[in-house]
Specification:
It is built from 29 helices and 17 strands. By secondary structure, it is α+β, with helices and mostly antiparallel strands. A hairpin with a 2-residue loop joins strand 4 and strand 5. It is globular, with a radius of gyration of 26 Å.
Length: 753
């Protein structure tokens, strides 16, 4: 792969032509940096001691055949190429920042760049902070945390960044670098209150919508799309700055390689014009397609080839039905040696809760771990009978899923989860099936850090049993959490998917009176709350079922060992709900992460249960600063904790099944409220927070002999930087820049510097 560092010896004339033009334009940036004086900047800088862990798949990859390695390579490439779209989905400046940093690091060795930084007044700590920022930008596919949605900035001021870019080889290799930096430089360190968190303008930042889109606009367009049965997973919403004939013009833009001159069609709705267009992220989408076609040549069976053909059509033309058909083939591909999924999958970060982030991964199946999950699937129908909502609230037929333990080879998105239950399409999940995966090398890649708020005994147990308990929780969460429960629906022909005369509420025994109408989905009905609500439901299932000895036995934990795993699961999860307060924005009264919101709610359920089951005590730490002491009474898990969570779980399922958003929101808000006590806890959580791990992922390399090898990197921020420079070609970054330049017009105020 040819990178810009190799171009230094190829373009000496270009160096001379542009060098003189760089300094003045870069120096102009410092006058435009904005920061609100009341913001604590340190809270938005990733710590220099941020741990880096290897996503280790070496043994699993080595076990694959040459054909399987080739298949995995092309899916990995498609996933990483497509994940460039995430930078375009996060913030107006994210893609531009990545373009600058990639070219900066590709232009010359890190050692040479460091020398230039130190020569221009940087300290060693500032250089390290800059590398941590760069690694964080790539791990999160943007400058907002994938886990928390808050902005992070470099631990070095923009004046010094200007000097480094001025002195860099990249500034001479790439004539357009100074223009990109001029646009994003004022934003990279800016901490205006409206820029701190993802969300609707004016209180937050999003690029799922143009900056002039309000919640009112989003709701209007969603009503239009619902009336047309149009789902928005792979779309964005933009509003023209000028009206046409006195009518507001909205553009629903679909991700696809193909573009359409004046658009697909347009309709009038509630006094506005809604226009449908293709070609969002077109250059990036076009980079996915060739690798999917190459993967098809190495596919193991016709099911995979049919799946990939549908994905190719989807990314080419943008039709969601193609991706759904590809997903239907995917769930039929049972027990593959190489597992994968790719598309616009999770809607956590869209403030409206309906549009989704790109995600792609490929992994090798861990056969030993998969045996446990297969045994859980074998027992799933009987286990579902233990749920607190009864048969009427469960799917008519258990759709036996494929559930595998995987070692991830490549994961392109804003973060890597520990487990996944997909696809997310309601019509497929409910009537045709789904798959579950547990990502074993993600679960095991845990740096050893002191655990806040625990006594020594509990901390020792956490270190010893956390991986085991988390494997149990992930398995139950994904298969029996996300995989359980029924949505009551009226079909387009007027019939229902449940017996309206006999089905009664599990809460009060009354007949069911609300349901999902045609065109409504779980995501569209519950909107921005849907992510946290569903994660809470799945987590609660894990809490309840991990108490059953026969389930623990499936995972290989019996007797005293089983009791320790059960205790550590409850201890870990409920403590996580306390620590989740770090991700609550007290100024905006808003949660920044769905899983954190979910876990906090469950912690409050357990606190409300009383009887000393969970105790959180404010204390003074050994360092003389405010601290917390967290205790869970293990003797009361079955008698107090489990009944409380089980009753709460029943309510969650009722409101979800019956499409009762108002009831579900009221329940969730009751347990999710933050008072003075919780705000004091939050202050301690923030003051004592530990940095989240960053992954350094390997790259697959296709050799001239047609065989694929795996290249791993050092568990350092330098290793992360080297990995992403190797991962992308110069052409890929140019395509990203083209997409970014084309979309800048939708956020004029962001770039008004």
């Amino acid at each position: 792969m040819l990178h810009a560092r190799h171009l230094l010896r190829l373009a000496p004339r270009r160096i001379g032509l542009v060098a003189a033009a760089v300094p003045r334009q870069i120096r102009l940036l410092s006058s435009h940096i904005r920061m609100s004086p009341q913001i604590d900047r340190s809270l938005h800088v990733l710590p220099n001691d941020t741990p880096v862990v290897l996503l280790d798949c070496r043994d699993s990859f080595a076990s694959l055949s040459d054909q399987e390695k080739l298949y995995a390579h092309h899916i990995a490439r498609a996933s990483f190429e497509g994940s460039l779209a995430v930078y375009l989905q996060v913030s107006p400046e994210a893609a531009g920042i990545f373009v600058v940093l990639y070219r900066l690091f590709a232009g010359e060795p890190l050692s040479a760049l460091k020398e230039k930084a130190l020569a221009n007044g940087w300290s060693a700590e500032e250089w390290q902070s800059f590398l941590v920022y760069a690694a964080g930008l790539h791990n999160n596919s943007g400058n907002y945390k994938g886990f928390g949605d808050s902005k992070f900035v470099p631990g070095v001021d923009v004046e010094k960044l200007n000097k480094l870019i001025d002195a860099s080889a990249a500034a001479t290799i790439y004539p357009g670098l100074r223009d990109v930096w001029k646009a994003v430089g004022p934003l990279i360190c800016s901490l205006e209150p409206s820029q701190l968190q993802l969300g609707f303008a004016p209180g937050g930042v999003t690029t799922y919508h143009s900056e002039n889109i309000t919640k009112h606009d989003a709701d209007l367009v969603d009503r239009c799309l619902k009336a047309r049965n149009f789902e928005t997973w792979n779309t964005r919403l933009f509003k023209d700055s000028q009206q046409r004939d006195g009518k507001t013009v909205y553009r629903v833009v679909v991700a696809s390689a193909e573009t359409d001159g004046n658009g697909l069609e347009e309709v009038e709705f509630e006094g506005a014009i809604v226009k449908f267009e293709r070609g969002d992220y077109s250059q990036v989408m076009a980079r996915i397609v060739p690798h999917l076609k190459k993967a098809s040549e190495a596919a193991a069976n016709d099911t995979q080839r049919q799946m990939l053909a549908k994905y190719v059509a989807h990314f080419t033309r943008g039709a969601l039905d193609d991706h759904k058909d590809g997903s239907r083939q995917w769930i039929k591909d049972v027990n593959p040696a190489v597992e994968s999924y790719i598309g616009f999958i999770e809607n956590y970060r869209d403030p409206a809760g309906t549009r989704s982030e790109f995600e792609g991964f490929v992994a090798a199946v861990n056969k030993e771990t998969s045996k446990k999950f297969k045994a859980l699937v074998d027992q799933a129908e009987k286990i579902l009978e233990r749920m607190p909502w009864g048969k009427a609230y469960e799917k008519d037929r258990f759709l036996r899923p494929d559930f595998t333990g995987l070692d991830v080879i490549a994961f392109g998105s804003s973060g890597i989860p520990a487990g996944i239950n997909i696809p997310n399409y309601d019509d497929i999940r409910q009537d045709e099936g789904f798959k579950n995966v547990s990502l074993g090398n993600v679960i095991s890649a845990t740096p050893k850090q002191k655990m806040n708020f625990l006594d020594e005994g509990d901390e020792d147990l956490m270190f010893k049993y956390h991986k085991d308990s988390f494997e149990v929780q992930v398995g139950l969460h994904e298969l029996l959490g996300h995989g359980s429960g029924k949505l009551f629906q009226r079909k387009p022909d007027g019939s229902f998917n449940f017996d309206t005369s006999a089905t009664v509420s599990v809460l009060d025994g009354a007949k069911i009176s609300t349901w999902y109408e045609p065109g409504e989905t779980w995501g569209s009905k519950f909107g921005a709350l849907s992510g946290a609500y569903e994660e809470c439901r799945a987590e609660a299932v894990g809490y309840v079922l991990c108490c059953d000895e026969d389930i623990l036995k499936i995972f290989g934990y019996e007797g005293e060992l089983g009791q320790q795993v059960k205790y550590v699961n409850w201890l870990s999860e409920i403590r996580a709900g306390l620590m989740a307060l770090e991700f609550y924005n007290a100024d905006q009264k808003k949660w920044g992460q769905a899983h954190c919101h979910a876990r906090y709610v469950l912690t409050q359920v357990c606190l409300e249960a009383g009887q000393g089951f969970v105790v959180i005590e404010s204390i003074t730490g050994p360092d003389g600063k405010p601290d917390l002491k967290f205790k869970l009474d293990r003797t009361k898990i079955d008698s107090v904790g489990k009944p409380a969570v089980r009753e709460f779980l029943k309510k969650l399922q009722h409101y979800k099944s019956t499409a009762d958003f108002a009831g579900g929101k009221a329940l969730f808000d009751h347990y999710g409220k933050i008072g003075d006590v919780e705000l004091a806890w939050r202050d301690v959580c923030i003051a004592r927070r530990k940095p989240r791990r960053q992954f350094v992922q390997p790259n697959t390399i296709l050799g001239p002999d047609g065989k694929v090898s795996l290249k791993s990197y050092a568990e350092t921020v330098e290793g992360v930087v080297e990995s992403f420079v190797d991962r992308y070609s110069i052409d890929a970054i140019e395509d990203l820049e083209k997409c970014w330049s084309a979309q800048k017009k939708w956020w004029p105020n962001a770039f008004a510097n």
